[in-house]
Amino acid sequence: MTTHTHDYDAVVARYFEAWNADGDRTRAEAVAEVWTADGRYTDPLSDATGHEAITAVIASAREQFPGFVFRLVGDVDGHHDTARFSWELVNEADGSAPVAGSDVATLDAGSRVRAVYGFLDRVPAGA
């Protein structure tokens, strides 16, 4: 049996770099670094497979919440090829965090994301 060791904190840090990347090119490069070519991102609002589609989901979220960044809440928990973590979408101007969620990510042998299953724990009223 082959066992792979992952640096879950590093993987999640790269994941947040992709979500917080400014500009289409930088975002696309970050997504390509983090996800496998056939990677999938799914949450209650989206289901995207492949770098282009995942980049578009991230761009849409960034456009919907300008001036906000995604930040890790608490510690990353991981075992085998799976990591779970919580996050908030934070307004850089006032520190408010109207959106929060939890994600579960599966990784390939090279610590690239194969799939993310996202859950929204807190959303603004009317969203």
TrEMBL record:
Domain SnoaL-like: 12-110
One Pfam entry name: SnoaL_2
Chain segments annotated as transmembrane: none
Protein name listed in UniProt: Nuclear transport factor 2 family protein
Species of the source: Streptomyces marokkonensis
